[in-house]
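Please produce the structure of this protein holding magnesium ion.
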Amino acid sequence: MVEKTLSIIKPDAVERNLIGTIIAKFEKEGFKVLAMRLHHLTKDEAKDFYIEHKEKPFYNSLVEYMTSGPVVLMVLEREAAIAKNREVMGATNPKNAAPGTIRAQHALSMEKNSVHGSDSPSSAAREIEFFFSDLIRCC
Ligand code: UDP
Ligand code: MG
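Below is the modeled complex.
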């Protein structure tokens, strides 16, 4: 089934000029970029976006990090996009990420792990609506 997923190139990767490298990887893996913009998240946006992690010990640090510089927000589309994006990203902890994945190649740490990807159809719907509500209305 052709699906859409939300991808974020996080501040550590934007800072190191990895935007082109990461988008090239997604395109090579068959993803279409349906929507994209550079954005500096506010504290309120980061807190709300990661609300599922509110009680976790890393939540405050994650919010600080995600607001530390601009990110690239994208809606990606392909067959089984949600699972395929998670596969191309690699495990959350780059030490556990499979060779060749974005996180294995580029992540700096468990927190500064270069990319975000929706983890289920319901989170993809929520996250796309969160940043690209126009796309939902028009397509
Ligand atoms: N994170 C962290 N420490 C942890 C777990 C997660 O700093 O122990 C950060 C990391 O940037 C991760 C984000 O919080 O990407 C969201 O965590 P999640 O478990 O949803 O991982 P993901 O879905 O991004 O792989
Ligand atoms: Mg997650």
